[in-house]
Amino acid sequence: MIYGHIHQFLLRTIASRGVISMTETEKILNEFEANIQASVQELVKDINEKIKPFEQMIKIATDEFTVEEVIIFLSLGYDDATKSQNVFSATELEYFRILIEQIMTTATRQITGIHAVNLVSKMKSSFTKMDAQKLLNVWCRMRYLDKDDTNYALGVRAIHEFEGYLRQNMPDTIEECCLCKQIVFRGYNCPACGLAVHTQCLNRYLEKVQKWPCCKVEFSESQLDQLNCEGLTQTQHLEATQQSEEYNTVVEAVCDTSGDEDQGTQEIIPEISQRITRKRKRQND
Ligand SMILES: [Zn+2]
Ligand SMILES: [Zn+2]
């Protein structure tokens, strides 16, 4: 199919949204034009040939969190040549690096909202908790992060955009799943042997047998609760209790003012240029 307005429409839609489910993409396309002669896969293939020189790519993948087929817009240019595309300030990049490092080095691959905003204290540049909360909101909308009631985890976009980069630049921070051998962005470290496993892989395994797949130690739900708590050190627990009120104030303040925060952020390319070493502490170490 000749590259035309339907391709441009699809590219614009995905680039502006970051991530769209396959079901919604098909619906949007049908509303835009009846009887399209190509499948989404074919359109994506044509678009990818066009945008490759700009180190951008559209990828069809499964969202580990929702188990839904999604289409993701990826900016893959992290090298010196493309740094000019980067609209993150140096400060924002510094925060993003610290955040990823924290998420990837907890046994549950997620951190609480309070912990996330408190990371500003680890930064060299001056950056307020309010600034951090605004960015966290923007990154959630862009699907660089996912958030449930209390925790942040890496979103489907960060997972696909950063996989190659993390393997190259943060090899000590990543671990492969003991079942499928892919990097674990959403998962746990076994409390007994410390090996990593995806949440999805673990759940599938547990349907058959109630043991950890890595070392066959008995599994119980309470171990996951325990791991979720261990994501924070004792001091952080204390801080978290003391600061939860302050945190709520930060969240409320940002929610009031963040209406137009994401203007012009669609082409943001977070870049992690410093090598980060693993800081996770295992029980068996
Ligand atoms: Zn796995
Ligand atoms: Zn184990």
Rg, Å, rounded:
20 Å
Terminus-to-terminus distance: 57 Å
Q: Runs with pLDDT <50, length 5+?
A: 79-87, 258-279
Oligomeric state of the chains in view: single chain
CATH topology heading of the largest domain:
Arc Repressor Mutant, subunit A
Shape: globular
CATH class of the largest domain: Mainly Alpha
Helix and strand sequence: HEHHEEHEHHEEHEEHHH
Helix/strand structural class: alpha+beta
In percent, how helical is the residue content? Answer: 40-55%
Under the CATH scheme, the architecture of the largest domain is Orthogonal Bundle
> Could you tell me which ligands this complex binds, including any ions or cofactors?
zinc ion
Specify the number of helices. 10
Beta-strand share of residues: 5-15%
- Strand line-up of the largest beta sheet: 1-3-2
Counted up, domains total: 2
Question: Which homologous superfamily in CATH is the superfamily of the largest domain?
Answer: Winged helix-like DNA-binding domain superfamily/Winged helix DNA-binding domain
User: Based on DSSP secondary structure assignment, what is the total number of beta strands?
Assistant: 8
User: What's the overall average pLDDT, rounded?
Assistant: 80
Sheet with the most strands? Answer: 3 strands, antiparallel
